[in-house]
Each structure stands twice: as C-alpha cells, then as structure tokens.
Design brief:
Layout: H1 2-18, E1 28-32, E2 38-40, H2 51-54, E3 62-65, E4 70-74, E5 77-81, E6 85-89, E7 96-110, E8 117-121, E9 125-130, E10 133-139, E11 144-150, E12 153-157, E13 162-166, E14 170-173, E15 182-183, H3 186-192, H4 198-209
Parallel strand pairs: 7-8
Antiparallel strand pairs: 1-4, 2-3, 3-6, 4-5, 5-7, 6-7, 7-10, 8-9, 9-12, 10-11, 11-14, 12-13, 14-15
Length: 227
C-alpha cells in the first residue's frame, strides 16, 4: 500500500511540474530519506542538509546516497538515483542537460521539449537521449549498461569507441565490443521505470510470448545433369 501511495504521489508531482506549478529553473530533491544523504558543492565542500539547501540543487554538486533511493526533480525531468550511487550534477536547466554518474544506477525521465537532449556520462560511456524519454543507466564494478524504457538512446563506449542505438524496451550491455541490444522483460520495466505504465508492461508480456519464427529456408535448385 505504501508503494502505491508513493507512485501516486510521484505521478501527482509530475503533473504539477508539467502544469508549470513549480518554478522553471528549480532543481530540488522531491522524494527520499535524506538522513543519510551527503551533498557537496562544486568546490567539494560538504553542505548542511537544510530545507533551503535540498530545495536549490546547484550545478556541479556531488550527490551521494548510500542507503536509500532519491528523486531529483529538474525543469527537464526527474532523476531516480538508487542507493549506493554517486552523481555529479551538470547543466540541468538548459536545452541540453548533462549529468555525470560516477557509480551506481539511476533512471532519467525527460519531459517533452523539441530539440532538447539529455547526456549522461559515466567513467567509460556516454548516453544521449533526445526529447521525451526514459532511460536507466548502470555503472558498477560488475555492470555497465543502458536501458531505454521510452525513446531512443545513442550509446557511445569510450573504451571500444563504438556507437550503438538503443530503442524502446531494449537493454545494451557495454562490456563487449560485439554486444547487441536485447529486449527487456516486463518485470525489469516495472522495477526501474519511474512512472511505469501497465499498458506498456502488458505490451512487453505479449511481445515476450510471441514465438520467434525461424528464417525461411532457401530454395534449392535441382542440379542438372549434362547429357
């Protein structure tokens, strides 16, 4: 029940933001337990967790949340930062937002704005989401991946120098040069999407149930015997 209330609360928050009920240039912490949160400004100075501080997140700030998930609200969308993550904020109010995910995982949800982009950089990769969409980025000792829940993501591997598109409901593991994007399951979408849509989840289930048809056999020409 608490999970349901939380989801409803986040949805109402998104509706308020889309209706311009929040200042256009505000960046703030919208949800999460901040008791264990650690904030540092662009100079590396530790910041006190006052209401004023958490309601005015600045550019270049370092956000560390070791214990619980955290929802960061920006003029361009929301960022659900999962526990044990380290995030550095970039330009969050312009048409071309940028962030640096040092470690951990986060779901980035962007609002519809023509010509806008969101770039998320990790120690080894870069991911660009254009316009409206949602992507999950994971960068840990065990995994480097990107998943698109809506929209198309362009991925760039800084080690292999390979660019690949990641389409809706696809996940790309970045550890291998020849890796291909794979279709995700509904449970993965429901777990990591910020505002999961049950209709989209049903679509995933239906796609997973569809049999994979084998390729059509090639026609074989009968050999002609010379006379």
């Amino acid at each position: 029940m608490n999970w349901l209330f939380k989801r409803v609360g986040l949805l109402l928050l998104a509706l308020c933001l889309s209706a311009n009920l929040v200042a256009d240039d505000s960046v703030f912490i919208g949800d999460g337990d901040i008791s264990s949160l650690k904030l540092y400004d662009s100079q590396g100075n530790a910041l006190e967790l006052t209401e004023e501080v958490i309601s005015q997140i600045g550019e270049g700030w370092i956000i560390s949340n070791p214990d619980t998930p955290l929802l960061l609200v920006t003029p361009r969308g929301t960022i659900n930062v999962y526990e044990n993550s380290l995030l550095v904020t970039g330009n969050l109010v312009g048409m071309h937002a940028e962030l640096y995910l040092v470690s951990g995982k986060a779901t980035f949800n962007t609002y519809p704005l023509e010509g806008s982009t969101l770039t998320v950089t990790t120690p080894v990769s870069k991911y660009v989401l254009e316009g409206e969409g949602e992507m999950l980025v994971i960068t840990t000792d065990d995994e480097e991946s990107v998943t698109s829940f809506t929209g198309e993501v362009e991925s760039y591997n800084g080690l292999t120098r390979v660019k690949r598109p990641v389409r809706t409901f696809e996940k790309l593991e970045m550890s291998e040069r020849t890796a291909r994007a794979q279709r995700i399951e509904a449970g993965y979408y429901l777990t990591y999407a910020t505002y999961p849509d049950m209709m989209l989840a049903r679509q995933l289930v239906q796609q997973a149930a569809e049999p994979l048809l084998p390729p059509a056999p090639r026609s074989v020409r009968a050999a002609t015997k010379p006379y």
